[in-house]
């Protein structure tokens, strides 16, 4: 059995300014978005659609706003409304943790819609382009949760080699942020990156990400202490699973639709490069 290392949440200080590991994980996430995006732009089927580095830089700015605003609002609305109603100022203390992926996901969708309108790009192509760039950033965020000793796991058998004593929680626990970092982040990234290396029907890559993440999150929720849960047909369903179900159903439906659209395409309806202004 292990003990949570309880690293100092402050990475370093510059006078009165304290830089937190949680914030640095977001910096790392955005840096990986740029690095992976530059690799993706060079893939032949992506380059053929006219994607440029300038597009990537602009999308990052919009994406950052979507992640931060959507992620924080999702945490407030989906998970801890009572806490933030009691202390509204805590909404702005994002360095303390508390960012909802599902809220951030919605925020990024809205941000990409705004970017696509500004750039005169097809919105569905924007979703397909950024989808493989997301999972590693998510993994970095979960590492930030682990460093902050957030999201404790459910009670684990003490004989489990990686069962962990968690700060402020009784008994050995599953290190659920690490599970989610590995399964929801790294595994989803590898599968999606391989899938997206070839040309796919429009919106298929975005739908595949939605489906893969939804399934991964539904599974890893079994090891995490839920923020709240309900009973469906006598089975407990957590808040994270409730929010992941629409992703699973919607992702599968959109993926099927995307492939049906490709089959039904004729030369006159096949993909054409949209007008793009510098």
Automatic annotation (TrEMBL):
Catalytic EC class: transferase
Keyword DNA damage belongs to the record: no
Compartment annotation: Cell membrane
Transmembrane segments: 20-39, 60-79, 99-116, 123-141, 178-196, 203-220, 240-259
Function according to Swiss-Prot or TrEMBL: Catalyzes the transfer of the diacylglyceryl group from phosphatidylglycerol to the sulfhydryl group of the N-terminal cysteine of a prolipoprotein, the first step in the formation of mature lipoproteins.
Domain of life of the source: Bacteria
Record keywords, A-Z: Cell membrane, Membrane, Transferase, Transmembrane, Transmembrane helix
Pfam families in the record: LGT
Enzyme nomenclature, EC number: 2.5.1.145
Encoding gene per record: lgt
Pathway entry: Protein modification; lipoprotein biosynthesis (diacylglyceryl transfer)
NCBIfam families: lgt
Residue sites binding a 1,2-diacyl-sn-glycero-3-phospho-(1'-sn-glycerol) per the record: 142
PANTHER family assigned to the protein according to its UniProt record, in alphabetical order: PHOSPHATIDYLGLYCEROL--PROLIPOPROTEIN DIACYLGLYCERYL TRANSFERASE, PROLIPOPROTEIN DIACYLGLYCERYL TRANSFERASE
Protein name from the UniProt record: Phosphatidylglycerol--prolipoprotein diacylglyceryl transferase
PROSITE patterns: LGT (PS01311)
Family (UniProt): Belongs to the Lgt family.
